[in-house]
Amino acid sequence: MRGLRFIILLLIAIPLAWYAYHDSTKGPVDDSPKRDKVFTVEADKIDELEIKSESGDRTTLRRKGSNWEIVQPIAASADQAAVSGITSNLSSVEIQRVIDENPADLKEFGLAEPRVEVAFKSNGQQRRLQLGQKTPSGSDVYAKLPDAKKVFLVPSFLDSTFNRSTFDLRDKSVLKLDREKVDTVEVTSGGGTTRLEKKNGEWQIAAPPSGRAEFGAIDGLVSRISAVQMKSIVPDASDLKKYGLDKPAVTVRLGSGSSQATLLIGGPAETGSVYAKDFSRPTVFTIESTLLDDLKKDASEYRQKDLFDARSFNTTRLEIVRNGQTTVFEKTKVKDKDGKEQEKWRQAAPAARDVDAAKIEALISAATGARATGFVDSTAKTGLDKPELSLAFKYDEGKEERVAFARTKEGAYASRPGSPGAAKVDASVIDAIVKALEDVK
Hints:
The structure is a single chain. By secondary structure, the protein is of the alpha+beta class. The protein has eight helices and 27 strands. Strands 4-3-2-1-6-7-8-9-5 form a nine-stranded antiparallel β-sheet. The longest helix is centred in the N-terminal third of the chain and has 23 residues, at 2-24. The radius of gyration is 36 Å and the shape is elongated. The N and C termini lie far apart (97 Å).
């Protein structure tokens, strides 16, 4: 009896298991409502746009090759990202819900005189979308097609996507230059000029006096200049004096090989803005005033603050002169008891001896961690004619550098051959090097 009951249960379980497996292979059930698209068009097939914004601007744009250009009311390059947002949303916009198939009064929806209209041409056929008011909740916007009666809802984010003025739709880049290829920066301000040059991939201060440059600081400056955007455009730019551009507060030139771009920055505009002009174009516009502050910085702001390029991992020799005595440490290669090659630090002068590698590492770190807190134009009155301490490094298979340190009543200083003036340093830097040297001894 039990066997028969088992067979019956098995016969019931097999088809149930099959159905369960079959349903599981279909994947998750999509029970979200199916919505109709407003238009059947591919974004890359749209070749002309006409935008009427809430402000009243009417802007016509046409595709030229892979880019878009504004053709009315001005001729200008378009903001490619903004236009791409419009075309992609036109191709994908869906009707969220139909509100009224035959409305008696379009004023109720703000569609008697639509706030925003977007028209496009694709394969010679023009279509148009009209936007009215937002719904009370603000999540959707009332919309319709001019050749149909029904009013429907589209997502409210489309309002900011489509509601663009001519200025919103234009390319607001100030300078047309590839920042990666910029190799010179020249900033003239207050009668003085700072010139920065990139050679062999490294930035240098070419003027006023030449010196080692802080790569990150200059690279950041180049990025800010190349990426500066117009905030607004001045309608009448005939009188440059009115905007402080007849005698600019700052003139900045970016060079890229034989190409050059020049930006003139004039007087203050509205809060947080200044007037500016690309030397090669008649248009006057406003930009963020923070760029002017950056460009007015002294050349010393771009000098390399690290006194040494060497580091503990790449140093092979260290020579220290203090109190008339020269101490030399060298990294050598020896074989351990198993015949494996390993690196080892030894003192080579004044007497040859083994030294504690960890203490040498601490000495090198104390020296190479030294940074300038500022700079002075002359080494006079710095005590560097008779330095308290001098360090010379060899690193990276042949590179050499030497830095001298001195103290006076006014402060502590350091200098490198070939670098103008002297660097100001904290006196604690010298103390740390001396202590680390004494620990090794």
